[in-house]
Amino acid sequence: MARLMVTTPRRVAVAAALVEAGAAGVSGEAVAAGLGISRAAVHSHVEALRRLGYEISSSPRVGYRLLSAPDLCIPEEVWPRLADALWVSCVGGVVTGSTNDEAKRLARDGAPEGTAVVAAAQTQGRGRMGREWESPRGGAYVSCVLRPTLAPSALTALPLAAAVGVARGLETLGMEVRLKWPNDVESGGRKLAGILLEMAAEADRVEWVVVGCGINVAGTPYPGAACVRDVAPAVGSADVAAAVLDGIAGAYHEFMTRGFEPLREEYEARSSLTGCDVRVRDHTGSLVAEGRVAGVGPDGALVLHAQDGQRRIVSGEVTLRD
Ligand code: ATP
After folding, report:
1. What average pLDDT score do residues 175-197 get?
2. Domain 9-68 has CATH 1.10.290.10
3. Which CATH class is domain 75-270?
4. Largest Cα–Cα distance of the chain, in whole Å?
5. C-alpha of residue 120 to centroid of ligand 1, in Å
6. Atom 21 (ligand 1): residue with closest C-alpha?
7. Fewest CB within 10 A of the end CB: N or C in the chain?
């Protein structure tokens, strides 16, 4: 509970205390003492949780007892599930504009590494190049603030490391996923999740990196997309969010301590493009390369065997050739 008191919003801390107490329940007094707030404040947080869809019984003998929680990717649900030591706080709400925008705002205001932002719906979800990421309620939308102590040039493969983390997280829920360079996560050949990294840096110093991921959980908001429940019907939105965030945290630790190489092998093992004939176009739609995918390089570039030799692709739109 000490960790909660530092930076996590009180309502999230109250929800976590109720989860921790389980069927035994916990008195308002004990929660208040644990969090250093008044019993009246605990009561108003419990009321706010009820409005969010929590069923909480209260009795003079047992105190508060959590009967059921809503299936939502909100901080109250995600925070108690986060296991990695990276996490220092989890903020957000039912609806936000974009968890990446919110995390960027917090990062600019000095939020520490390990600040997570989660939401159950986004009104302005984005993918690469400002493309829209459909984010209705029923998905898991997560972002986090990282502050890697490396030069920007050392981070070119971080998006791929993050993708490995997302894949590992989803695999802990019993899913089988593939990665499509650079930032798509697929299930059964259909897009399940997208990853977006944004950063602020000077020439030799990174100020912050925000890693965001939107995952379709309860339904498929985009034609031809996949969702978690197609494969894992019993998995909750907050389980998905926590698994993905912990996966990102684990991959990030490895990236920082051992570099990209071990993660590169993992990325390639999950890559849906290796060995495929592809076309690469730039953001204007112009063809930049054609060839067979050999793998990814130490810097995260896509490596192609093209007619004129080996090509390294650092950005672009990859499609399979007919
Ligand atoms: P592509 O997968 O077509 O190469 P991209 O990787 O460049 O796209 P992203 O940044 O991953 O693009 O995501 C934006 C695109 O994903 C949108 O233009 C749309 O085609 C698709 N999309 C939007 N919302 C969803 C969603 N919820 N699930 C799956 N796909 C979506």
Report:
1. 96
2. no
3. alpha beta
4. 78
5. 18
6. 133
7. C
